[in-house]
Amino acid sequence: MGYYVKVETDVDIYIEDINWRGSKTILFLHGWPANHKMFEYQFNLLPKLGFRCIGMDQRGFGQSSKPWSGYDYDRLADDVRGVVDALNLQNITLAGHSTGGAIAIRYMARHHGYGVSKLALLAAAAPSVIQRPYFPYGLPKEEVDKIIQGTYNDRPNMLQGFGDIFFFQYVTKPFSDWFFQLGLQAASWSTAAIANTWLNEERLFHDLGKIKVPTLILHGIHDKVCHFPLAEAQRQGITNSMLVPFANSGHALFWEEREKFNKELAQFIG
């Protein structure tokens, strides 16, 4: 079931609500530059186990509105709150991949985890995507600059190159093309704006300490986008958290080791 939730006067967020009668709810936040469809291999299985799976497209991505502004983590976290309120969600698991994981962390800090009983961070882009003097584990700033310039000058080529580092395991040409199309469904300005957000303002070190719910951290050890030490920093910064490494995955652990991924997530939620 697909529908829209209005979070601002001119911004509607697209929702895919699967098995809405399920006994336990997972709200999925996708990573950059994709949309909710990246969780196809979770939506195929988890509803069979009784879970209600809700995928939302962030503003600027997928089928959601594509406004010019609102791509900082505060506003994106507020969009999540708008969805939680509109759907009257309670005792849910909030699951975020990559940038979606960063948004989930900001939601937990900014909105005090409202409606969330468990948190799942999936190759999360936190506490910092880029290298900083006090945190040398992220991407070089120059790599993100290249992504931004590539977005403005040749977005299809940039997306193709990003797809090449996204996966550790072999992917077929049709699968690569499908993933590429997910990125093209975003607006170019929102694609660049999120990358600028990584560079210019977003650091989540203090947010980690504000998370009070049980937290599952799933992360591929071969991740070339959000390096594995980010997961270790999340584990150290979040009380009552558990880190599960994925030995045969890059950034796409949700697909590369989908059986293990789905099993770990289902067992965590219980």
Taken in chain order, the helices and strands follow as EEEHEHEHEHHHHEHEHH
CATH homologous superfamily title: Alpha/Beta hydrolase fold, catalytic domain
Percentage of residues in strands = 15-25%
Distance between the termini: 24 Å
What's the total count of β strands? 8
Largest pleated sheet: 8 strands, mixed
The parts where pLDDT drops under 50 for at least 5 residues are none
- The CATH class label is Alpha Beta
Task: Please give the count of helices.
Answer: 10
Average pLDDT metric: 97
What is the CATH architecture term?
3-Layer(aba) Sandwich
Question: What would you say about this model in short?
Answer:
The protein is an alpha/beta fold. It has 10 helices and 8 strands.
Key descriptive features of the protein:
single chain, 270 residues, alpha/beta, Rossmann fold, 8-stranded mixed sheet, 10 helices, 8 strands, 41% helix, globular
What do you see in this structure?
The protein is α/β, with parallel strands linked by helices and 270 residues long. The chain has one domain (2-269): Rossmann fold (3-Layer(aba) Sandwich). Helix content is 41%, strand content 19%. The chain contains ten helices and eight strands. α2 (73-86) crosses α3 (99-110), α4 packs across α5 (173-184) and α4 packs across α6. The radius of gyration is 17 Å and the shape is globular.
